[in-house]
Amino acid sequence: MRKYIGIDWASKGWFAVCLTDGGDSEMGFYPSVFNLWHHHQDADRILIDIPIGLKDDGKRWCDVEAKQLLGSSRGNSVFYTPIRAGVEAQNIKEAKRAQKSLHFSIQNQAWAIVPRIQEVDEFLEMFEEEVDNTDIRETHPEICFWALNDGEPMTHGKKTEEGIEERLSLLSNYLTDARGLYEDAVETFTEPEWASVIGKSGRDDILDAMVAALTARECGENPPRLPKESKPEYDDVRGREIEIVFWPDID
Question: Which of 66, 104, 110, 222 falls between 20 and 30 A from 82, CA-CA?
Answer without folding.
Answer: 222
